[in-house]
Amino acid sequence: MFRRSEQDKRPQVQIFVDGVAVAARQGDTVSAALLASGVDARRSTAVSGAPRLPYCMMGVCFDCLVTIDGVGNRQGCLVPVAEGMQVEIQKGKREIGK
Amino acid sequence: MTVAPKREAYDVVVIGAGPAGLAAAATAAEAGLSTLLLDENVGPGGQVFRAISSTPVTERNQLGADYWVGADLVQALHASGAEIIHRATVWSLDRNLEIAVSIGGASAFVKAKRVILATGALERPFPIPGWTLPGVMTAGAAQTMLKSSALVPDGRTVIAGQGPLLWLLAAQILRLGGRIDRILDTTKRGNYFAALPHAFAFLTSPYFAKGLSMMREVKAKVQVVSGVTELAASGDGQLASVSYVAGGKRETIPADLLLLHQGVVPNVNLAMAAGIEHRWDDLQLCWSPVLDASGNSSVAGIAIAGDGAGIGGANAAVVRGRIAARAAVEALAPAAAAKLPAMATLRSDLARAERGRVFLDTLFRPARQFRIPSGDTIVCRCEEVTAKDVLDSVAIGATGPNQLKSYRRTGMGPCQGRLCGLTVTELMAQARGKSPQEIGYYRLRAPVKPITLAELAAVPKSEADIKAVVRG
């Protein structure tokens, strides 16, 4: 869906998406890194289970909700990636304890 | 790294680091007021100057000269001595000018003598069939990724809608080597005629030449279909095609990415939750706060600057930020105000920046069918409520958006009505034969962004707080 422009010279950052290593760039938000990676990052909604991807990328739509380092319902579009970050695609509502 | 505010009280707290907030905070701090700027994003710039301090797009002409103006504002802010905290989500503001802000999962409270809200705008909802499908995004979303991560569309890409941002985005995507297969222009034909009386102001504004050259640049490379009157996205769990009607003829084209845009509207959540009076703006088709000429709202001590005060664009936002800050300085440190540009100068700057706005608002006033959906089209993305669901609720007695909550939970999901509120108001107004002003809006309350109960429970409590809720 998206690709990186060649002029992007930012250093790489490795994150893990459902346990699989994904190359991101320093300064990417989690949502941008997911959309750039080509992995199937579709979450599913708490109401009907419908698949969703980020819609607004500016913190208002909450369609980027994702589990980051064990904490559910994070807005992936507002959180910058960090080396070794563990991202889980959230299926349905936030689980108790996450 | 978590950085809490350094003090418990400030002269001025500015919320939002877009053009208005950057200008307001710099002005207030330069005049010697203790100033705190709180912003939800990773760095300064808001949406229009997003990633201004960190963008990987190094070829400056690709983002355009209007973008790099933001760097000067950031520089002025850093030189001003204002305290700046990013990744800080303000979730409460009340009439006592007490602000609750979530930073790194913990909440802090600060008190202000003056608050300047610069929470800007968000994209107007574009509720077409299939707009919740993965692969359908806002134009602003694509622009955010382009500016902050140099990402460009590379699958089959359709851009649909209208307005200046749409053409700017298309030009930027093309300059960075991205792909656009087709642009579907939904500008209503009749709007050209309606906008004509306002054309002189626009033709003599700086926006005209820029806009025209950008449209030419895009049209030379991309097929543009104008007069689009119907639009729908479809696919099974993922966008597969976009169908549209133009000139009475329906066409369906395969697509991996659909970018929607029909203008921006004030982000009202924090202002409304603070109890600030808003009125329905029938030209811009949104809620705008009731403000005096200095941006002061109906709540004493709270001013609003930038697009949150009514859509005016980045240049106007900067000036409104300076006006609101100057008014704060006049109130709190009158002697220091003498150093700042005179209010009369700022007001004429504002008039210049707003020149041509009525033309744009009239020309790009979105058509009814793209604002007020019908049938199975989703209105509330969070709770997955359709237009038919809303109308069925009206038929059995729901009178307005607040009653509708108990019927359908519209606006009660995490986005708190940001993506459905305007649609619900207009849909119910149409169904009940009332004006949007009469129908009203959701009653918004703190927390205006979801925070966990654990975070709430962890906030410092006084004896009186505990006594208020604990029996015996």
UniProtKB/TrEMBL annotation, chain A:
Signal peptide: none annotated. Pfam families: Fer2_4. Keywords: Oxidoreductase. SUPFAM superfamilies: 2Fe-2S ferredoxin-like (SSF54292). It comes from the Bacteria. InterPro entries: 2Fe-2S-bd_N, 2Fe-2S_ferredoxin-like_sf. GO terms for molecular function: iron-sulfur cluster binding; oxidoreductase activity. This is (2Fe-2S)-binding protein. It comes from Bradyrhizobium forestalis. The lineage of its organism: Bacteria, Pseudomonadati, Pseudomonadota, Alphaproteobacteria, Hyphomicrobiales.
